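BUG: 3D viewer hangs when loading the predicted structure for this chain

Environment: internal workstation, default settings.
Expected: structure renders.
Actual: progress bar stalls at 90%.

Input used:
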Amino acid sequence: MDRVSFTVLGLPRPRDLGFRRSIILAAKRAFGSRKFWEEVWIKMEFRFNASTKARVKGDIDNYIKNVLDGLTGIAFEDDSQVSGVNAYWIDFESEGVWVEVEGD
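Structure tokens produced before the viewer hung:
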């Protein structure tokens, strides 16, 4: 198993194209020319400070979709390769998302 992880700073937002572009850029830096061609498992940690979390709109699945869309074609070829996603909210000093992709 091989793992690649990266962090994107800034307020995560569902359906936000600017945030998705940030995911794409960070994934390109982290993966370089590597790509997973078999099954992958993904962990996502959405980080918000306590005052922002109260104002967060949208369900976690919308946040997950934005990250998966940003990873498709870079970390893996197609989202049908995703065998599992572990995603959660966490109170954290600096806002952003931590992503780890694991595969063969």
